[in-house]
Design goal:
The chain is mainly beta. Helix content is 10%, strand content 33%.
Amino acid sequence: MNTEKVTARRLTAEEVSELGLQEEIYVSAELDDLSLDCFAPAFLTKPGKYFDGGSFVARTIFGKEIHVLPGNAEERGIWVADKAGEEIEVLQSAGVLLNLALFVPNGTKESLESLYTAAREAFGAGIVQRWNEEVVAVPDVKVDLYEEPARGRKGTSGQNRDRRALDIYPTRVRFIEPSAGWKFIVEPHEENVDDTPTI
């Protein structure tokens, strides 16, 4: 793990309630329900004044949401940098995790091995790993991907749709994230036909 020592102090619930979205804080580092013995840089998901008596929710720089009750002595709490505080261990970002879905036309086992070998040579054998390998035959079909509000009013027309992407393969939909507050609508692809009369 790549960590560094930071001088910080633990905040009370009242102090946390005065924080805004831009304030950098430190919360317990958790990765896939594994609590690490250190902290992670984070930001509140909404200003502290809006958490009325409930747990505060922070999102770490690694994308993990943490629920914290600052007044609970049994929890790690919320910390902020302070030269007069105590030393804590903070987990730093050591790189970027990429989830890749590769479409290999007429792909064979040999061509996939060649891709894997080339990636390991480029980035290092200890860096490139295959965590979940799927070999899926992708049919030659395409879909249209739209976004619309997650809580749309009933009876409204499709006018509020935003076209997110065109002509994509269905297997790629799993690897695209919708915008906050929006959901995906996947429909069979239809070619745009211009039926404007010409002279």
